[in-house]
What does this fold into?
Amino acid sequence: MKPQLALLLLTLTILTGKFTVAADSSVNYEELTYRLYLEHKWDSLLQTGEKAIAEGYDYYYMRARVGVAAFELGKFVRASRHLEKACEFNNGDPFAAGLLYRAYVYSGRAGEAQRFQKSLPAYLAESTGGWSLNPVLYLEAGPSFTDHPDRFEQNRQQGSGLYSEAYLNKHSVYSVAGAIIPLSGRLTLNAAGAWLDFARTRHVGISGLDTLVSDYHVRQAEGYLSPSIYIGKHLRLSPAFRMVQVSYENTMQSSDPAVQQLIGPTGSSSYYDTGIGGEVAWLNPYWELSAGYWSLETDRKKTIQLGSNLILRPLGSLNFYTSTSLLLLHKEEETKTVFAQMAGGRIIGRLWAELWFSSGDLSGGAEGNLQVFYNAYDRVQNRYGVRFIYPVNDYLKFSLRGQLFTKTGSELFFSGPEIGKIHTYDYQTLTITGGLSWNIK
It folds into this structure.
């Protein structure tokens, strides 16, 4: 046999064999994946289906089955990729559209879910359940406790002194109510109001004249507004504004006019703290990176804050996620650095938990794109927190959060006419809040 003829026969044999195997595999893959789908053998279906797709057997039913398998295994990013392709093959199928919508939501891509749902015709939008385009109402409230008075008594300055003054925190109450309102597939508005009531004590000692102790309250009414604008598939812009009205009453009185002049007139006073800025975020199924700039004014003193935050979802779902933040706060020629780390995920069943800590002075700064404003003047050294989350269903979830702050208290003490010094000591504050969020049907 001539070499040229032998080579031609070998080539035809190889090509014919490939075509024969492909034809057989097409029937086998269809039957096999359908059987695995009926038997709910999701691991085998995912592996077999992706192998079939890689070999060219790519059509609606194959993509839909593989998408279901990945979804049932909690691989929501992987599921969304197959379901996106299924919707391309059949853009009128409510099953694939509804499951793709949920894959977006369960992988932490609420914005993408909103945009996808907004692009659907009405009859398909109904198949998604639609909760991401409903307004979300959220409430949170709880008390705060501290050992500040006890720590002050243990560490206050002793001996002769001309003048001393200290402000002590006691208990406080915090509450917030807000709504996240999707205005369109690419625009969401977050608006909230908060009310805080701090019980405090003021200590003033004047050598040879008087020793005064006065209880009073500092009350704050806060308003928050932040629209989120989605540009393309990956970019989000979120400007933010916060205004805080701080009011308090000086109840300290003395029968000595000179002392009264020194401690200030009695009566009510109020002023405003503000924060304005925003952040830009790059969105990805497995991670989100954001950076922001904010200008804050607390007690008539300005702070410039820069920050960045990285959210990781390494499993492609919300079963495990982390958040890492770095803040730089510049105030009166002093720059402070704050580092925060959070990890969260599913514990068991429907119960979720988040753990976090931060290191650095948060006073005068903000977190969460101005959602939390630390406008008290006591320095925050460290913070540790835990939050438990229980979703009752896709519309309602409850949460319980505890935070322990290590703070620095201070006492102004004059041992002589011009010899004044601020003495510091540590104390702790425990905050416990319960909350709920409700997607309105």
In short: The first strand starts at residue 136 and ends at 146. The two ends are 79 Å apart (CA to CA). Residues 1-27 have pLDDT under 50 and may be disordered. The chain has nine helices and 16 strands.
